[in-house]
Specification:
26% of the residues lie in helices and 21% in strands. The longest helix is centred in the N-terminal third of the chain and has 19 residues. This is Phage gp6-like head-tail connector protein.
Amino acid sequence: MMLIEQTTVPAAALPVEKFKEHLRMGSGFSDDALQDSILETCLRSAMAAIEARTGKVLIEREFLWQLTGWRALSEQALPVAPVGAVSSLKTLDRLSSATEIDAARFVLQRDAHRPKLLPTGACLPTIPLGGTAEVVFTAGFGADWNDIPADLAQAVMLVAAQFYEHRGDMRARGDTLPVGVNSLIAPYRTVRILGGAA
């Protein structure tokens, strides 16, 4: 399976000014924007870290998911949440010849943790032997920073601050999250049982 981000978070959606306030950086100087690119990089890195630990997409964007087989013919859990829409589904044979699947043959079951692709008939489309299925979908809490739940937004700020403070020393960063982040993200982490099938 491979999840490919088709669109990225636009710079305008990143809370650079709020992050400056969080860091208590001075303002009103001629070089106020001097560190904006560094702050943006820290925010993007922190968002990626929180998304990886929770399986939740913070700011809305489009993804392409490629897989070689369904977990079950009656349903397929999607790899991230929340998913707003599935825009296309197609199967490809081993020679990459594509078959677009009619949107009437599947439906998105929305869920805060495990959204699923369901067939409207008896089963999901057959994936050719040696082939793949490609699902294109939009995921995220919304298009704007203010659409993100407050506790996840705070977690991003804390992680981004750690990245900023230790930007010159990768060893100081480590894999340890700042104090309190695990508590903030705990309600959003997906508990996987039976190998993640449910």
